[in-house]
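In practice, a research group might receive sequence data for several interacting partners and want a quick structural hypothesis before committing to experiments. The following worked case mirrors that situation: the sequences arrive first, and a predicted assembly follows.
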Amino acid sequence: MNQIKMHAIGIIHSPYNEKNDIPIQGRFKDDVEAWAELKVKYVKGLKDLDKFSHAILLYYLHKSDKENIKGKPFLEDVEHGIFAIRSPHRPNHIGLSVVKIKRIQENKLYFTAVDMINGTPLLDIKPYVKYFDSRDDIVSGWLDKHFKNGKIPDKTIIRRF
Amino acid sequence: MNQIKMHAIGIIHSPYNEKNDIPIQGRFKDDVEAWAELKVKYVKGLKDLDKFSHAILLYYLHKSDKENIKGKPFLEDVEHGIFAIRSPHRPNHIGLSVVKIKRIQENKLYFTAVDMINGTPLLDIKPYVKYFDSRDDIVSGWLDKHFKNGKIPDKTIIRRF
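A structural hypothesis for the assembly, expressed as tokens:
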């Protein structure tokens, strides 16, 4: 299987119109709301998602036009492998964010914890299931030193691309 | 943008050769090990991933040949929208698992918490970052009643397709 074909199931409408506006991780900027607008044929797929507090959005990082095998992350000047950072310049350009569900109206899912640029093509929505997706025994590599003692580094709200 | 083209960055080698063998969520069967074998050109992308305890694997659910808009999940006989369940029969067929990293050797990432079938095409590896991906204020919709008081339902180890 050499080529895998995908398609947008909808579009993410975000207040971030410029790459430089986007927070690195939307979790740290919870006052900003966005919505995913699904193609009408997928509306029934949202049934019962409103009973979940969070969802995992998978989307296409369409503004990246390159694929790097290593990169320097936002928080430091040290190079790590692309699979040890969350850079958009990665093979297949799939973005992943855990977002907080605010409400669902027809084909629109409104959410906070936004870190996508306006117009981002949506690939999938999965319910966030604490029994599968949350862990309490996590070591987060090079990131742990930046988040010591529950501190959120200033640099989590800076440009992403 | 109507069509998005992706490709496998590697293959997942799993002891599960038949669809019916696969646990619903590998987290509840931690004695089984698998490995992701990356194409050689991506080896450098693994640098420093071994300092993380967990990774998020995104993969192509290549054994599913259908796309349902609703479905009955493994734990109950009630229909939910496809975006409120983790069924493989979803638009774009992207699978997501949080796995526990055991070791990395050259182009091979060994892990536990396995719930993929042998030969699954790998699309991406992301480091699991507790500050981004873990939450402590989760409501998990229709699933919560099945996991009351920390109980793991027997049915989490059953066939997936």
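Before designing any experiment, note the following. Residues 130-133 of chain B form the longest helix (4 residues). Chain B touches chain A through 68 residues (CB under 8 Å).
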